[in-house]
Design a protein that fits this description.
Helices cover 68% and strands 0% of the residues. By secondary structure, the chain is mainly alpha-helical. The protein is built from four helices and no strands. 6% of the residues are buried. The mean pLDDT is 93. The protein is globular and about 45 Å long. It has helices spanning 2-20, 28-40, 46-55, 69-84.
Length: 85
C-alpha cells in the first residue's frame, strides 16, 4: 500500500511539473481545465482530495488545504510566458 501512495504522489507531482512547464505545446488546455476545476471545486485540488481520502495526507502536507492565490498566479503566469516567447 505504501508504494501505491508514493506512486500516486509522484504522478501528481509530475502532472504539476507538466502543467507548469511553459514551453509544452499541448498543456494550455490542461492548465485551463485545472484552473477551472479549482474554481468549481471551492479552491481545492481534486488530486489532493483523492490523496487525502485514501492516504490521510497529500504529497505536500499532512492536511488538505485550499489552492492559494499564489498557486493560481504561477499557473497563469506560466501560460502567459508561453505566449510571450
Amino acid at each position: 500500500m505504501n508504494i501505491i501512495k508514493y506512486l500516486f504522489f509522484l504522478s501528481h507531482y509530475s502532472f504539476i511539473i507538466y502543467v507548469l512547464y511553459p514551453f509544452s505545446k499541448y498543456n494550455t488546455e490542461i492548465a485551463m481545465l485545472v484552473y477551472l476545476s479549482w474554481l468549481l471545486n471551492n479552491n481545492y485540488c481534486i488530486f489532493s482530495q483523492i490523496e487525502y481520502k485514501f492516504f490521510g495526507e497529500t504529497y505536500m502536507s499532512k492536511r488538505l488545504r485550499k489552492v492559494r492565490s499564489f498557486d493560481k498566479a504561477i499557473l497563469l503566469s506560466s501560460q502567459i510566458c508561453k505566449y510571450v516567447f
